[in-house]
Amino acid sequence: MNILENIYSRRNIKKFKPDMVEPEQINKWLEAGTMAPNHKMTQPWEVYMIGSETRTKLNHKTNFCQAPVVLAILSKHGSTEIETYENVLATACFVQNVNLAAWAEGVGTFWSSMGNAAKNREIMGIPDGYDVIGVFGFGYPEEISQPKERTSIQEKMKYLP
User: Tens digits of per-residue pLDDT, 33-45?
Assistant: First the structure.
């Protein structure tokens, strides 16, 4: 699959098969994530592997769509407000690299934003000075939804003189 096919076909998965994803695969995708652009090589991302006990305590409304693997991806705050902002952007690029690398090998992801809630930060032991970019389920898709219609990029472009 070429990169454009990968980008256009990737979906947020809402139903996973129970088949386990090998840790070596996940590590490979996370390594690919580290190739994301990041200002001044801050490499601000941290990854928490969520075990069954923590997953139960998080009590996600869909149990991460039954994904066999769950990760939390964090972004470390910078020493300034702008550096913190840049770190969040870099971590989002990290996430996209990981998602696309997994998708290229037939593994989908489910992105939940519930990780930054105070209760969930406490459950996961997230220290001050970090933002939780997302909690992600990883697994082989049971079903893949059709793409939702997108606004044409032409409607989103501004041409400056």
Answer: 999 999 999 999 9
Domains (ranges, CATH) in the chain? 11-130 (3.40.109.10)
3 state SS for the chain: CCHHHHHHHCCECCCECCCCCCHHHHHHHHHHHCCCCCHHHCCCEEEEEECHHHHHHHCCCCHHHHCCEEEEEEEECCCCHHHHHHHHHHHHHHHHHHHHHHHHCCCEEEEECHHHCHHHHHHHCCCCCEEEEEEEEEECECCCCCCCCCCCHHHHCCCCC
Q: Which of 146, 74, 67 has the alpha carbon at shortest distance from 108?
A: 67
